[in-house]
Write the structure tokens for this entry.
Amino acid sequence: MKRIQIGGKIIGRADRPLICTPLVGKTRAAVLEEMAVVVPKQPDLIEWRVDFLESKGDIAAVIDLASEIKAVAGGIPIVFACRTLDEGGGSSPLNDADILKLFVAACASRCVDAIDYEMSNPAYNLAMLREASRENGVTMILSYHNHQFTPDGAELAEKFGEAERLGADMAKVIVMPKASEDVLALLWATLKASRKCRIPLVSMSMGRLGSLSRIFGWVYGSAVTFAAGMNSSAPGQMSIEELRPVLATVRHAVEDS
């Protein structure tokens, strides 16, 4: 598995996935309350879902809060994400131009360690954000989210390759399964892409059917899995307390096989 570093954390370890925990508070107070609960649980990464924040249209306020999050994170790397409704985002979404400005400002602030941006955005936006992230030493994750269904395995494998061609430091594919076969398609696509791509990959199948991908996905090449510290950001997320011992059991079984 390919390796990079985000805020001192190695992404792409072959022996286990990193655990990322979301922040989904609607207000500054709610976000900081989540941080007070999440940080003691010591996830490997914290993903701040800014699309849930009611004041996300105020760039200065967002950056000020990002600075406070960074200060209390205790060295845990922060991933900055802001999704549209089509990407499973929160209510009252910003338009594409405003979201781009928010991401550029987050990079310039250097209060975040990584950004997670949808690869379906216009090429100009992707190029501008790629430049801003590189200039400020911020890791760029390019994502594909499908909250409606799971495309076939070949298409999913291609999404990973597309992210790499677009200049991503990491590629992420998240889909909704309609049947158990969809989860297998995602795992197959992750394994296939992991043998070709030169960047770390992250994949997840959502909901009840997809919950196994959060446990076993790393065996097939997914470098990061997600677990709730206080609140979940997607269907099928289990808590850190539930996920950690299960991952340890799987790791033990794989290492002894």
Q: What stands out?
A: The CA atoms of residues 145 and 214 lie 16 Å apart.
